[in-house]
Amino acid sequence: MSTQASHPALLIPGPIEFDDAVLQSMSHFSESHVGPTFVNTFGETLGLLRPLFQTTNPASQPFVISGSGTLGWDLVAANLTEAGEDALVLSTGYFGDSFADCLATYGAKPTKLEGPVGGRPQVPEIEKALSEKKYKIVTVTHVDTSTGVVSDLKSIVQAVRKVSPETLVIVDGVCSVACEEIAFDEWDLDGVITAPQKAIGCPAGLSISMFSGRAMEVFKNRKTPPASYFASFKNWTPIMQNYEAKKPSYFATPSPQLVHALNTALKQILARPLSERFQKHKEVSDKVKKAVADLGLKIVATKPEDQSSAMTAIYLPDGVQIANVLPKLASRGVIFAGGLHKEIATKYIRFGHMGVSVTDPARTDIDNALEALKTSLAECGYTKA
């Protein structure tokens, strides 16, 4: 039985439900961020990110910095682009668009290649764009939580290497790391940014990332200084390298309690083969999507191959409002999220299915949520045609 206070199941696209042991790690007594015990924990945590991202290349560089997932965009923009350089942003919704805004803030020139609502840019379109202009980086949101669309990273990298091999491929993996496969070395990725509060299953407050040796060389060879102080690789890289080598180092204060929680979450994830974890998320996702279809509802991500295992964005039936259905779900102990994509925001809800709600066999979160959805829609007057 959980030791947590009774509460509704949080089934939004993040934050998600957390395991007891992870939360208990947060209650660690206060300790020095440069003391030997914490240095050992932080160094171990950085090392655990390597198998999570599936990289064994010693040139790959992990970062864990206090901040939100959004800080990852700043790390990319401030360090891997310079003012006036072109970036190709593959957008499948709100978060792809926001990544473009961040790049522009730092002086880069983003070009957005957008899929239709519920779809994604196709490889021929990407190859055409790359052949028409030299891009410093290509960014892709692996799972955009505004639509539930998942992008095919492997095919995207293959297209970039074919047409523009020097272009860096950067992935926003905030809603994909630890539930969708990311083979950093095998797929030849240059950067993946993420956060702990989604499939990793640790409270929010950290920016987690991995960058390739090629990306770090691009940073070293930039013509101008990094465009940020706090988000500077120049300031953070020696800190991360020292900590991973179990040596105390200081630039800005980390959160020891969050790092302890992340350490626990990563050990739980890596105790089993990642392939099993990815498969379990897919199985539960398929179950959710079948149940949604059986209710006569449509999914925002239109094609099966475009549908994420992390979450499902569900169009509401005509006549059913978000403001009516979400409180009914909450009264049954289930929290879903409203819409986010600006073109369809009032028309759909979002169901996150990640982490312990999926992997812990003792939990009934998913089954309860599907039953609550069926009952709540009926109470709103919906009957399947």
UniProtKB/TrEMBL annotation:
InterPro entries recorded for this chain? Aminotrans_V_dom, PyrdxlP-dep_Trfase, PyrdxlP-dep_Trfase_major, PyrdxlP-dep_Trfase_small, SP_NH2Trfase/AEP_transaminase
Q: Classify the source by domain of life.
A: Eukaryota
Keyword check for NADP, yes or no.
no
User: Which residues are annotated as modified residue N6-(pyridoxal phosphate)lysine in the UniProt record?
Assistant: 198
| Enzyme class, first EC level, given as a word | transferase
Query: What cofactors does this protein use?
Result: pyridoxal 5'-phosphate
EC number(s) stated in the UniProt entry for this protein? 2.6.1.44
Q: Where is the Aminotransferase class V domain?
A: 64-341
Q: Which GO terms describe its molecular function?
A: alanine-glyoxylate transaminase activity; L-serine-pyruvate transaminase activity
Q: Which GO terms describe its biological process?
A: glycine biosynthetic process, by transamination of glyoxylate
One cellular component term from this protein's GO annotations in UniProt: peroxisome
What PANTHER family has UniProt attached to this entry? Answer: ALANINE--GLYOXYLATE AMINOTRANSFERASE 1, AMINOTRANSFERASE CLASS V
Family to which the UniProt record says this protein belongs: Belongs to the class-V pyridoxal-phosphate-dependent aminotransferase family.
Record-given protein name: alanine--glyoxylate transaminase
What lineage, starting at the top, does this entry show? Answer: Eukaryota, Fungi, Dikarya, Ascomycota, Pezizomycotina
